[in-house]
Amino acid sequence: MSDASSRNPAKDYQTVSADSLLETDLRSLVRLSIAEDLRDSLDWTTVCLIEPETRGGCQIVPREAGICAGLATVSWIVDEFDADLDVELALEDGQRLTPGQPIATLRGSVRDLLTSERTILNIVGRLCGIASLTARYVAAIRQSDARLYDTRKTTPGWRLLEKYAVHCGGAHNHRSGLYDGFLIKDNHLALAGDHKGPIAASTAAKKALRWRGSQIERLAAPDIVEIEVDSLEQFREVLPINPDIILLDNFPIDQLRQAVVIRNDINPSVELEASGNVRIETLPAIAATGVDRISSGALTHQATSLDLGLDWFDSESS
Questions:
Q1: Per-residue confidence at 219, pLDDT binned at 50, 70, 90?
Q2: Closest Cα to residue 132, out of 62, 63, 65, 60?
Q3: 3-class secondary structure, 203
Q4: How far is CA 128 from the centre of its chain?
Q5: Domains, the chain, ranges and CATH?
Q6: What is the mean pLDDT of residues 145-165?
Q7: What one-character DSSP code corresponds to residue 241?
Q8: Which listed site, 14, 93, 183, 276, has its alpha carbon 20 to 30 Å from 76?
Q9: How far is residue 119's CA from residue 124's CA, in Å, rounded to a whole number?
Q10: What confidence score (pLDDT) does residue 191 get?
Q11: Is pLDDT above 50 for 7?
Q12: Residue 135 and residue 89: Cα distance in Å, rounded?
């Protein structure tokens, strides 16, 4: 993992790991992939040309440099295919990929290898692509104390997997779902109001903090209260209410600096998160303003799959 993973932020959402929740989501995704490819039928090309007894092996080989992510899922994928295959991993998630250096070896039924290969490469390649892009973003702010976060702008069905890949790339996970803390946005303010207009951001923040206090036993840890503001005026209104995090939405660089100065003077315990127009080109300037956190949907929705291939060896019929 990169430097971001070793920091100890005061307030943070839960980190996605290769646990039973991730496995459950991965297996559901693989079952969908199997249905797409086979539709309760067979891989006719493979059945026609490959004898059932044929054994062989292949290695998963990156064709480009990057960061490994999702390799731990290969055994789960093989299991969902009910494939007669042994899996041997050469790397751990979070480690660097070297072009041409194998990262996993699969041995067993050639029929099963051919039928499952595309699903394996699609999933692992996608996750490695996200981790690799994330690592480049993290490197862009390495000289600052700012922490980089993902968002909920993920592929439907892939939420935990993509957030896991972000973590492998060295960044932090923002909330995994609507259950994972409070994040008050402009639409909440507009629709919680009455005919006179939206409710004030400070009113919403106070209500969320009170509600958290009364419902604490029902809430998912860490029950963070975060509120989005889109102006310095709104920021000044919310800061004394003491939410855990204030999200500064699409603030220009000079206003981000002003917000940090105001926060440091009035309520240093509140963390500031910059979001909006976050690209790898803009990251260093955003981080230099002194904000604590930077969130970017680009980590997931702009990532492309890493180029992985299968290199085959010792095919034989028994």
A1: low
A2: 65
A3: helix
A4: 11
A5: 15-137+304-317 (3.90.1170.20), 144-298 (3.20.20.70)
A6: 97
A7: G
A8: 14
A9: 9
A10: 83
A11: no
A12: 22
Structure tokens belonging to residue 77: 């994928």
Largest CA distance in the chain: 79
Give mean pLDDT, residues 142-166. Answer: 97
Q: Which two tokens stand for residue 314?
A: 């010792």
**Distances 170 to 124, 138, 196, 258, 279 between C-alpha atoms, Å:** 17, 7, 45, 28, 17
Give CA angle at 229 (192, 296), nearest 5°: 110
Name the pLDDT band for 315 (thresholds 50, 70, 90).
low
* Cα 165 to Cα 174, 234, 300, distances in angstroms: 13, 34, 9
| Active site positions, annotated | 118, 153, 185, 228, 249
Place of tokens 């067993």: 108
Distance of alpha carbon 5 from its chain centroid, rounded? 13
Helix/strand/coil percent split, the chain, to 5: 45, 20, 40
Contact 142, 311 (CB under 8 A): no
CA distances from 187 to 7, 25, 295 (A): 33, 30, 19
- Nearest CA-CA partner of 201 in 174, 180, 223, 226: 226
